Amino acid sequence: MKAPEVKDLYVNAVGLAAPGLHGWAQARQILSGAQPWAALPEAPYAPQLLPPNERRRAPAGVRQAFRAAEDAQSACAMDFSQLAAVFASSDSDLTVMDRINCALSEPVRAVSPTDFHNSVHNAASGYWSIAASCRLPTTAVGGYDGSFAMGLLEAAALVHGDGFGVLLVAFDVPPPPLLRASRPLSCAASIALVLGDAPGPGTLALLRLSLADEAESLLSDAALENLRQGNPALRGLPLLCAIARGGSTRLVLPHVPGCNVMLEVAAA
Amino acid sequence: MKPLAISHYTVTTACGRGKAALLDALRSGRSGLRHGQFEAGAMDGWFGAVDALDQPLAPEHAAWDCRVNRLLAAALQQDGFIPAVAALRQRYGAARIGVFVGTSTSGVQQAELAYRDRDRSGGRLPDWFDYSRSQSIHVPAEFARLLLGLGGCCMSISTACSSSAKVFAAAARAIRAGLCDAAVVGGVDSLCLTTLYGFNSLQLVSADICRPADLRRKGISIGEAGGFAIVDPAASADGPALLGYGESGDAHHMSTPDPEGRGAQAAMQAALARAGVAPAAVDYINLHGTATQANDLAEDRAVCAVFGDAVPCSSTKGWSGHTLGAAGMVEAAIAMLCIEHGLIPQSLNTLDLDPQLRGAVVRQALHTRVDRVLSNSFGFGGSNCSLLFGRPA
Question: Which end of chain A has fewer CB atoms at under 10 Å, N or C?
């Protein structure tokens, strides 16, 4: 396959929320191999940026998305209202869909209006637009297990095609019991990246992106590989490991059959 | 931006399969909306249903069988679209053609059926339910990729009712960024109880046929549709082209538009700026025009703030119903039909124009040269997208 000409992307901040990986500042020690991963579940989280009404209504998927986005923001001097935003999620929030589908299977079919407005795949991007007072383009994509790479491609297109700095947030939360057999995710997780066409004060890495029909990269650490496979957002974990280690790494993220995303990651 | 040629397009709505059926309906004022029930026992109302979706998919695609995929497969069969993609594949190679599909609910109807059919004592969904080939938001794009034999990058966009307007923007920037050389874009959404009872819970579904811009408008009529287009930067420049696009967020509320329409204004202004086109050079505005009280009023304010009150505008939801995640694609197709056939459609079903609306709502179809059409699509979460189509010259 001919390598496309895509300009370099700068990673200007990272956010992370996953079991045992509680924020980028703590997690980078683990992802670099300096400390072992331990299975510490995350405490419940209330998004800080949301106004009280929206905070009350925000479902678990939205909270998980905000957790990584707010982690990235905490270490970044940028004005997040001036970043376009891409929210990438396979399933958004199946607990909301489950409540709606249960209601629809009863004779009265009483769907909750709050559940309905939370059921849209772009719920997280809508709440984000409100929370960050962001009127720039925000979008929501979903690519099943390739969601992280799909979000990264849309972010790259927004940076190099449209000239925006971009907040990319990949997130997913496990489904409720009825859907676990259909969609077995092992944990809730989210990753946020602030991407741009120029370095900033806290730039962490430089990405060279191309499309390739090559097998996705696995992680050598068994515990981290287990996490990677347990949540579509964590298909981005090899990239975060490469950033945490520094140096230069070549890796492949899963996108769609026959077309994965190859990244050459260099320390900034 | 440089105009991006749209070399082929097709659309299937309640008005019929293929673009000729929609054009004929637009010309004759024939609505595709019918009164009845989407399924036995469900609330009745006005629906824009596509006929004959009760046939299962061909045996080789049986694993993908669900209403949204049947609609998608039917839409791709029209207007010589599949042969046109085959020719595109010859020119660029399958790996350099991106697929960008918008949907709001994908195959959630299959989940509705599975929940009804579940084992309530054991808490299990039936074995036939396959989340990854029905409900997942990524299903229409993946199925389109399979049917079209394409192997390049892929984007499933789901931003409620702006989903399949945003595919044009996503494809344009992906081409500019070098992720693909050409693109197939599209949108599809099928009727389901989730949207019917969901919008009804917000009191946004009209018991009467939807009447955009009408003084007594009571809300939407839900429709279903599928449509696709080929974005080919190297195509000859005599057909319709995407001249510009603009996207914005309302930063206001999850399910109510900003009453001042500031986000909508920003989307329209960005589309004009990207195209380098002045507001006065736009011949027709195809409104989002859902026929809810809040949408039509906020959109009118936004349109008048950007364009003044003289540019002819109308909603075409009276023909197709609100096809939700497919609406952007349906109305992109209408914009291109208007340009190719010199038509400005009327605001169908509007009886008494709401005097609060200041825009130039078209009451009788105009037959005139149309060079540029702006199409608005706005969705829950305050997701706005405006597309500008025109002749490239």
Answer: C
